[in-house]
Amino acid sequence: MTAIAVTIAGSDSSGGAGIQADLKTFSALGVYGASVITALTAQNTQGVTGIHDVPPDFITAQIDAVFSDLAVNAVKIGMLSAPAAIAAVAAGLDRWKQTLVVLDPVMVASSGDRLLAPAAIDILKSALIPRALVITPNLPEAAALLDAPIAETESEMRAQAEKLLALGAKAVLIKGGHASGTEAIDLLVSREAVARLSAERVATKNTHGTGCTLSSAIAAGLAKGQRLGEAVSDAKQYVTEAIGCADELEVGHGHGPVHHFHAWW
To answer: At the top level of CATH, which class does the domain 4-248 belong to?
Structure first.
């Protein structure tokens, strides 16, 4: 049986994040990738210059076309910039009975450009978080979802993750990549346990698409039949290695992409 994962996300015209990063990640990890595009962005390694939202009815059409034909094992959800798009995706998950869902609550690009309309935050919390097996916010995203200050310690990270659990997610991977220190520490928090995942912080400016890559790597693991903890641990290792090899690539003049195919090229 072919492992299949679907990414529901926005397109990155420069290829480092979004749909493009997700499909590269699926391929690198031995999973067949399909996609539902929710938005087109005009962007490069230096920033986002335009966003064109895909109409909700066409998002629905893509979902129904893919899920009616492909035996989908896991779903990754990324950029959803408008309330109607979020509602369309939530309805699609229900219609096709998808439960292995990784939700990356993308709000701001690595360049600092906002990707989620403020009006969409409430429906993201009410309609999608309860449908997710795991959500993967970074520190600024977790703070924005909770309307709280950015966590500065591991205890504050855990407390915010537990508050996000209360919104209905089965588990929360709160990512510490935006923190300081020699280690990049993430916490996987569920109602049953807390797992601490650490890796040596890599000194590079080329981190475009790290969040997309991590969430799609988790979905790839789930698609192959891994349990959540194993999928998260393997995804963390894959992203750390992809960041560590990022400087081998020469792409753009700003924050370049991670090296998705570091094991192959």
So the answer is: alpha beta
